[in-house]
Amino acid sequence: MSELPQPILEALDGPIAAAVRWAGAISRQLRRFDVSVSGKTSGNANTDALTLADLTVQELLISALRDVDPGFRNYRMEAEESTGDLHLFADQAELTISLDPIDGTKQFRDRTGDGYGVLLHLRDELNVVYSLAFLPEMGEYGTWVHAYGQTIKCGPDDPGRPAGEVIAALPAVDSATRPHSKKIYLIGFQQRDLERAQAVSEAGLEGYAPDDMPGSIYPLMATGDFGGSLIHTPNVYDFPLSLHIARILGGDAVWVDSGRPVDFRESWLDDRADMLRLPGIVACAVNRDDLQTLVDLARDWNPIRYAE
């Protein structure tokens, strides 16, 4: 697994974390208005939701990464939207920076909950190296999820202190005392999300379709309220945070057709949603027995996302 140079790690945990917090504040304010825009036509409401907040937040984060440390420009950039000086980052590099400016955009746009967030991660071809998520409306001042090395932190923000100082002070998740949850998040199965969630429940776990999710999967998974996810052709901007959390806690993310651990050497461009995705169906879980249950269940399901 790649290790981050100390100046890059310090920048991520300091000024970049501050920029992520600012991005959360901007999204919280923009959510009060009708900021929907068109542009995605996959036919799935969760995928096609796009707002001015997505574009604005990405512009802010790309600018921060561009300016805070020139070392960031030596990495590849994969961002969900097209805004920002993406051309200033490397075309080829060992590490990739990935951004999801507003994860959970449908919930954000429809004002139906607090499960949206600003996501950033760095990865190489095989593993996620660094993850940061900020949920602006989860809790009084927002909630952080931070993962690096063998440590995951999750907890409330405190706007009275610098973002990096807050993250540094958060307690690490203890895998020995973290609860074992059988709740599994499902998404990407198009009109069959609910049906597939029911199949997971019938297999002895507890399947949750997108409309039934009580919040963002990342803090829920970090703290043990959820055990993992089952995702059809996950995109490369948000799913890797779940993979990162699972692996640090002793689990994994695998392709159900082969059981092979997920890597990032192969992806495909979903033209309908205008985003990069991993192929096939991916199971992700902290508990290895639950992971095998998901693999056995979904092994023969259709791996083609748009199977008209």
Structural overview:
It contains 9 helices and 13 strands. The chain has 308 residues and is α+β, with helices and mostly antiparallel strands. The chain folds into 2 domains: 6-169, Fructose-1,6-Bisphosphatase, subunit A, domain 1 (Fructose-1,6-Bisphosphatase, Chain A, domain 1), CATH 3.30.540.10; 183-298, D-Maltodextrin-Binding Protein, domain 2 (3-Layer(aba) Sandwich), CATH 3.40.190. A 6-stranded mixed beta sheet has the order 1-2-3-4-5-6, with helices on both faces. The protein has a 5-stranded mixed beta sheet with strand order 8-7-9-13-10, with helices on both faces. Strands 11-12 form a two-stranded antiparallel ribbon. The chain is globular, with a radius of gyration of 18 Å. The N and C termini lie far apart (39 Å). 49% of the residues are buried. Residues 40-49 have low confidence and may be disordered.
Strand content range = 15-25%
Distance between the termini: 39 Å
CATH superfamily of the largest domain: Fructose-1,6-Bisphosphatase, subunit A, domain 1
Task: Provide the gyration radius in Å.
Answer: 18 Å
- Read across the widest sheet, the strand sequence of neighbours is 1-2-3-4-5-6
Largest sheet: 6 strands, mixed
Q: Work out the number of β strands.
A: 13
The number of helical elements comes to: 9
Q: Write down the domain tally.
A: 2
User: What would you say the CATH architecture of the largest domain is?
Assistant: 2-Layer Sandwich
Considering the chains and any ligands shown, give keywords for the structure.
308 residues; alpha+beta; Fructose-1,6-Bisphosphatase, Chain A, domain 1; D-Maltodextrin-Binding Protein, domain 2; 2 domains; 6-stranded mixed beta sheet; 5-stranded mixed beta sheet; Inositol monophosphatase family protein; metal ion binding; magnesium
